[in-house]
Amino acid sequence: MYDTDDLIQLSALQHMAFCPRQCALIHVEQTWTESGLTAEGRIMHERVHEEDRVSRGNVRIESGVPLRSLRLGLIGKADVVEFHRTSDEDWQPFPVEYKRGKPKMDHCDKVQLCAQAMCLEEMLNAHIPAGAIFYGQTRHRLDVVFDEALRRETEAAAKQAHALIESGCTPKPVYAKRCERCSLKVECLPKTMQKKRSVKTYLTRVTGEP
Ligand code: SF4
After folding, report:
1. What's the pLDDT tens digit per position in 140-185?
2. Protein residue whose Cα sits closest to atom 2 of ligand 1
3. Cα angle 187, 192, 193; round to 5
4. How far, in Å, is the centroid of ligand 1 from the Cα of 160?
5. Which of 49, 51, 74, 185 has the smallest set of CB atoms within 10 Å of its CB?
6. Every domain of the chain and the residues it spans
7. What span, in angstroms and rounded, lies between the C-alpha atoms of 70 and 178?
8. Which H/E stretch holds residue 36?
9. 130 CA distance to ligand 1 centroid (A)?
């Protein structure tokens, strides 16, 4: 169990699952940059959060729901939590995350959503088997099942993100395909930084002496 002073932002898990260096740049070095794409994403989230509370038949929809888990050491907000009525007394929570782009091959978005579900489970003493991610580019809602494998992956990402942020160290860049869609590509300079030579290597090269 974590202390309330030691909670980290839930979004760090998504950043960690995407790239540990991106996670450290944002959550250790507080580097952030607003590009056209991140601005679109931010506006989309703000619109969703503004909607507040809606009821549609047997579904109640709450926006901008505060989240916390002392077990995972996380704090954050869910874009939307739908509450589906299952009986007169019971409502099944169903988190929905809004993303600007389209579904990705990696699990970053699913890990973030699963972390939201695990926070809600702890807060509401409930079991949440599934949620969904709405992708703005494809206008498609992807259902996500919170199975054991995804839960373990989420717990591991939370532990890794805590360890990284507590270390205060930013890993060196490793250029990969993901860098091309990274919002911090300009600040990170993955190709340039990776090629950085040591002083000794530089002197050896220019003087020809070992
Ligand atoms: S540019 Fe690449 S190495 Fe740098 S933070 Fe982004 S994903 Fe990580």
Report:
1. 999 999 999 999 999 999 999 999 999 999 999 999 999 998 989 8
2. 179
3. 75
4. 17
5. 51
6. 4-169
7. 31
8. helix 36-50
9. 30
